Each structure stands twice: as C-alpha cells, then as structure tokens.
User: Fold this.
Amino acid sequence: MMAIRSPASEEGMHGSKKAASSSTSMRRSKTEFPVKLYAMLELADNIPVFARAVTWLPHGRAFRVLDEDTFMEEVVPVFFNQTKIRSFNRQLHLWGFHRIGRGNEKVWFNDNFLRGVPASMEHLVRTKIKGNIVGSIDDGKIPNFDALPSLPICDKHPSDVLNEMEKAILKIHSSSIAH
Assistant:
C-alpha cells in the first residue's frame, strides 16, 4: 500500500505536539477535518483498501462508509487522530454533515462538500461545542440527488491531490488569520 504521511503520523514520530514543526502546527488548524476528508475520498479510488471502506456516491454530493471496521482500522488512522467511529461521526456533525438513511446505512452529505469542487469547502463552518450534540437523520434537508447532475470524478494522481489539499489548508488558514 502507498505510504501517506499525515500530521497524525508525524505526531507519533516526534513523540509530542510540541516537537512538531510549525507547518505541522499550521495543518492542525480548525479547517483540517474537511480538507483531510476530501483528500481521503479523492484518494479512495486509487488505493484498494480505501475503496473497500469508503467512497463518493456516483453523483459526487455525498459519501458512504462501506465497511466501518476497515474504515476505522485502515483509513481513518492515515488522516485523523481518531479511533472510534462515534468521534468521527461527531466531527462530521460539527462540520454540518447530515446522515442519510437508517440503521447501518452510513451515508453523509453537506451542501458545501462536493466531489471535484474543493473550493466549496471554504463555506464549511465548524459548530462550536456547546454540550452534547445529538446526531440525527435529517430527512427534511436531504436533496433529491437523483435529480441533480453528477459532479466530475477526480482524474489526478494521488500526490497531486495531496498537494492541492495542502495548498487549500494554507489558504483557508491564512484567510482565517486575516479576519
């Protein structure tokens, strides 16, 4: 499998957050979750173990966790410092994602998280934590995906996707400092 360095793995290599470089600290900004999530989904088609665990839906407006165990054991540790699906789901809720479906169906969408349109993530806002967040299935907010045109599939090399995501993190971080 292709080795991917992430801030999560760098922290472990250095032993503490203090030893991490300033660029790693910058990547720890509040915007990192959606950018890493986007990179993970764009890379999923090119890495077989990822593709078995998570994928964009064909229309590109939502994604599905196909195999929760593989997702949490093989995919999530590459991008995030989370070990429990509940923690991952909580982050999705904090970033305004909505779960579609019932029971074991793990499909998530956000109007500002679209395949092939990474600039749409600039409109994502993380909710401040104010006590317990109760996850819900928002049937009233689910768009009719079948009535919408499909979004483009990423045809870039995985390293190009990661480079673009790094630039997006820096851009979002610099604009949040300016405000």
User: Anything to note?
Assistant: Residues 1-30, 133-137 have pLDDT under 50 and may be disordered. The chain is about 40% helix and 5% strand.
